[in-house]
User: Fold this.
Amino acid sequence: EVSDDGVGLPENSSTRISGVQKLEERARVLEGQLQIESQNGVGTLLRLVVRRAHLIAKPHQS
Assistant:
């Protein structure tokens, strides 16, 4: 979870769309869920929820 008290994410800016798409792709790869809360002039909260089992490295098999 990451948050700030900045200006928030502009609704339709190309920067927001590109950044959000990258985060959504990472969440999908990890089989997780991305939550974004943003209000103009209030800030933004990003939360990525991933099951711990998906983060544990699996041993290589030869």
